[in-house]
Design brief:
The chain is an alpha+beta fold. It contains 15 helices and 9 strands. The protein has a 5-stranded antiparallel β-sheet with strand order 3-7-6-5-4. Helix 4 crosses helix 15.
Length: 335
C-alpha cells in the first residue's frame, strides 16, 4: 500500500533569544512501500476494544484510531523509532501490519500489547456484580506496551483538570510537535515528540495548549531523564511506580495510571481519583461517598488484582448518578 503525504509541519529547532526551541517546519511526504506483517493467535478470548481502549486519550487522539472495518490503529515512538501498528481480529486470530523504523519492534511486542503476559485466570470474583461482568467480558486482558513516556506524559496532563482539557492539550502538542505516523494510516495520525523535542517546547506553547506551569515543569523533569523513565517498563509494577515517583510532581495517581498501561499491572489501583472511590463504593457497598480508604478496604479481597477488579466494576455500568457539577475548567491565565 502506498504511503500518504501529510502537509502538517514537523519539528525542527531554532534559536529564540539565544536559546534553542522546538518549532514547526515543513514535513516531507511519507515514503511509499508496504508494511511488515504478523499473525498472532491469542491464548484465549480477546476483545481488542477492551484491551487497547485504555491507550486512547480522547476521541481525537492523534496516536489512536479505530476504523469501520474493526481495525485498531496505533502510532507510537518505539526504542527503534516511529512506528504505526494496525491490528484486526478475524477467524480467531489477530492480523497485524506495521510501518516505519519501529515496525519490527511493534510486531515483536504484539503479544504483550494484547495481554499475553496477563493472567486473567488468576482473578477470582468476590462480588456478584464483579462475577457477572467477568462472565460477560471474557475478552478483557491487560495490555502491556513496554513504553513509559507515552503513558506518563498524558497522565501528567490529566492531573487536576477535566479530561476534555487534558485531551485537548495532548492533541494539540502531539499534532504540532510530533511527526506524521508512517504508513497508510488514517488521516492526521501522529507520533508523539521525542524527549528532546518535548524539552524544547516553548513556555508559551504550553500555555496555548492550556497546560499550567506546574504540569509543564513535571513533564520537563521527566523527559530530561527519559532513559531512566523508560527503564521502568522492565521493572515490577511496584518498583516502576517508585522509580516514576522520584520525579517531583509525579505521585501515586500518575504512576498508577502509567504502569497500568506500560507494565500491564493488575494491582495498580488508582488512588486520588475524583470519581473512582465513589464508583467502587456504590457498586460494592451502596456507598457513593466512599473515599480512597474505603475503596481500598472494599477491594482488599482482590489483592494482587485490584486494577482488574476496578476495570470490571467500571464495565458493569453500575455508576452512581452525578449529583454535583463536573470539575470546573481551569484558566491558566489566573494562575
Amino acid at each position: 500500500m502506498a504511503g500518504r503525504f501529510d502537509p502538517r509541519p514537523a519539528v525542527t529547532r531554532t534559536t529564540v533569544r539565544g536559546g534553542e526551541v522546538a518549532v514547526p517546519a515543513p514535513r516531507p511526504a511519507a515514503a511509499p512501500g508496504g508494511g511488515r506483517e504478523r499473525r498472532y493467535v491469542p491464548p484465549g478470548p480477546l476483545d481488542l476494544g477492551l484491551v487497547l481502549g485504555p491507550l486512547r486519550r480522547g476521541p481525537a487522539d492523534p496516536m489512536f484510531r479505530t476504523t469501520p472495518d474493526g481495525s485498531v490503529w496505533r502510532a507510537t515512538r518505539t526504542p527503534a523509532g516511529a512506528g504505526t501498528l494496525r491490528v484486526a481480529a478475524r477467524d480467531g486470530a489477530v492480523h497485524a501490519e506495521a510501518w516505519g523504523p519501529g515496525a519490527g519492534w511493534l510486531l515483536d511486542q504484539l503479544p504483550a500489547l494484547l495481554g499475553e503476559s496477563d493472567d486473567p485466570d488468576a482473578f477470582e470474583p468476590r462480588h456478584r456484580l464483579v462475577a457477572a461482568t467477568h462472565r460477560r467480558r471474557p475478552g478483557l486482558r491487560l495490555t502491556r506496551t513496554g513504553l513509559v513516556l507515552e503513558s506518563l506524559i498524558p497522565s501528567i496532563l490529566e492531573q487536576k483538570v477535566t479530561t476534555d482539557e487534558a485531551y485537548r492539550a495532548w492533541r494539540l502538542l502531539v499534532r504540532k510537535y510530533g511527526e506524521p505516523a508512517p504508513g497508510p494510516c488514517p488521516d492526521r495520525m501522529s507520533v508523539m515528540p521525542d524527549a528532546r523535542t518535548w524539552a524544547m517546547i516553548p513556555s508559551w506553547e504550553w500555555h496555548r495548549a492550556g497546560v499550567d506551569d506546574k504540569r509543564a515543569a513535571t513533564i520537563l523533569r521527566a523527559v530530561r531523564v527519559a532513559r531512566r523513565m523508560e527503564e521502568a517498563a522492565a521493572m515490577t509494577p511496584e518498583a516502576a511506580m517508585a522509580r516514576l515517583e522520584l520525579i517531583p510532581g509525579i505521585g501515586p495517581w500518575t504512576s498508577a495510571e502509567t504502569v497500568q498501561r506500560s507494565n500491564g499491572a493488575p494491582d495498580a489501583i488508582t488512588v486520588g481519583d475524583l470519581h473512582l472511590p465513589g464508583i467502587v463504593g456504590h457498586a460494592l457497598a451502596d456507598d457513593r461517598d466512599a473515599d480512597d480508604a474505603t475503596m481500598l478496604e472494599l477491594l482488599a479481597p482482590y489483592a494482587g488484582q485490584r486494577h482488574r477488579a476496578a476495570r470490571l466494576i467500571l464495565l458493569s455500568g453500575r455508576v452512581p448518578a452525578r449529583r454535583k457539577p463536573k470539575m470546573p475548567r481551569g484558566d491558566i491565565g489566573k494562575l
